[in-house]
Specification:
The chain has 422 residues and is of the alpha/beta class. Helix content is 45%, strand content 17%. The chain is built from 15 helices and 12 strands. The longest helix is centred in the last third of the chain and has 26 residues, at 372-397. Bound molecules: glutamic acid.
């Protein structure tokens, strides 16, 4: 997304109006501490060499080590990674965990690589970046099209370089090598805690609420599953191939859809298997049209810049719950706010992922592991507390929830910078 960083800076300026921050600190927050772009050479299965472009942006570490995901994505670029690293800085401060913000990426379509090529790509990325990452420097994690297996290769490659096991260099690992219980569903679980608080405040009845989820990756799928289990009606879903909308009175079961997706590779095949095909009423829609369908809660859980100045006027939901990073542009925010649509911002809603990453890091450093109920109860208290703090700021300053989250976060980051002597 070419405008991602410009969008992030607009959100920053909007919030800055409500804060008294020294201009020097403001200025520093507009530039990452370090933005790395480097070659990631990979030996392909046919013996040839291919070089991919790699990035790691270390935005701000005033409150702790840089922290943020690594994406393998065909359109990844430095501008986008910079925006995402800035958002990580805001996100970690929003939920008060002791990390700064960073993000990484490789411009690659991992679906076109074999498993062996993917492993060599990951190891090559770590080799290029080894001096800049580490448990007390910068701790990567999964993001778009990376997963626990990729994190395991990162941990292994880094540990080989160091000559000892260093699980705390990366989070989102498989549990066998120090991953935290609950990390795989943490983003969705955190988003679900936020939705639960928000519907209470807005006096919305979950049982009567229709939910549309754009994106059926780790976060989108688990969120849809949790929402369905709590009684919400899931009436729309999509993956990168397109979406499905349920007919009148019908709602989807995300778990059985996932089963079909695994078999057939796409959601579209969902109902047209066996007898269900003629029993359930649904229609196919594009990802763009999915967002504009009538519903109560719209959950963008895929990519950046999905709700823009162009389509914001056609959004019919009461709540936009941002599970993806940066799904709503600043122009769209203005329009949604005017229409009275409540936007629950990404830096709060999807912070469950990095919060459980923080728990994983703590467990790794202490070599002392928690039970899943412990993980979720600590996650819930952080999410609920953060939600209430933001709600309070929004009410008292009469501002939207995103601006309130930014106000709270920028205040924390800038105070850390100031007290450290910047
Ligand atoms: N990629 C996730 C995010 O955008 C997780 C980051 C992390 O756990 O460090 O929040």
């Amino acid at each position: 997304m070419p405008n991602a960083f410009a969008n992030a800076m607009k959100q920053f300026s909007t919030a800055a109006q409500y804060l008294e921050i020294k201009p020097e600190i403001m200025e520093k927050l507009k530039t990452p501490k370090r933005a790395l772009q480097f070659a990631v050479p990979v030996k392909m299965d046919n013996g040839s060499m291919k070089t991919f472009e790699g990035y790691r942006v270390q935005y701000n570490d005033a409150r702790g080590p840089f922290k943020g995901g690594l994406r393998f994505y065909p359109t990844a670029d430095l501008n986008e990674v910079k925006a995402l690293a800035f958002w990580m800085t805001i996100k970690c401060a929003t939920v008060g965990i002791p990390f700064g913000g960073g993000k990484g990426g490789v411009k690659v379509d991992p679906k076109k690589l074999s498993t062996k090529e993917l492993e060599r790509l990951t190891r090559s990325y770590v080799d290029a970046l080894q001096e800049h990452i580490g448990p007390y420097k910068d701790v990567p994690a999964p993001d778009l099209y990376t997963n626990p297996q990729v994190m395991a290769w990162i941990m292994d490659e880094y540990s080989k370089i160091k000559g000892y096991n260093e699980p705390a260099v990366v989070t989102g690992k498989p549990v066998e090598i120090g991953g935290s219980l609950g990390r795989d569903t943490a983003t969705a679980q955190g988003a679900f805690y936020i939705l639960s608080e928000l519907v209470k405040k807005l006096k919305i009845n979950p049982q009567k609420s229709r939910v549309i989820v754009q994106g059926f990756g780790n976060a989108g799928y688990h969120f849809a599953r949790l929402a369905k289990a709590a009684g919400y009606r899931i009436i729309g879903l999509s993956d990168s191939q397109g979406g499905i909308i349920a007919g009148q009175g019908v709602s989807f079961d995300p778990e059985s859809i996932m089963k079909i997706k695994k078999d057939k590779g796409e959601l579209h095949g969902y109902y047209c298997v066996g007898s269900v095909c003629d029993k359930v009423d649904y229609k196919q829609v594009s990802n763009g049209k999915l967002l504009e369908q009538d519903c109560d809660i719209l959950v963008p859980a895929a990519l950046e810049s999905q709700i823009t100045g162009k389509n914001a006027g056609r959004i019919k939901a009461k709540i936009v719950l941002e599970v993806a990073n940066g799904p709503t542009t600043p122009e769209a925010d203005v329009k949604l706010n005017k229409k009275g649509i409540v936007v629950a911002p990404d830096v709060l809603v999807n912070a469950g992922g990095v919060t459980v990453s923080y728990f994983e890091w703590v467990q790794n450093l202490q070599r002392f592991y928690w039970t899943e109920p412990e993980v979720f109860s600590r996650l819930q208290s952080i999410m609920v507390k953060s939600f209430n703090e933001i709600w309070q700021v929004a009410q008292s300053k009469k501002i939207d929830l995103r601006t309130a989250a930014f106000v709270l976060a920028i205040d924390r980051v800038s105070k850390a910078m100031a007290v450290r002597g910047y």
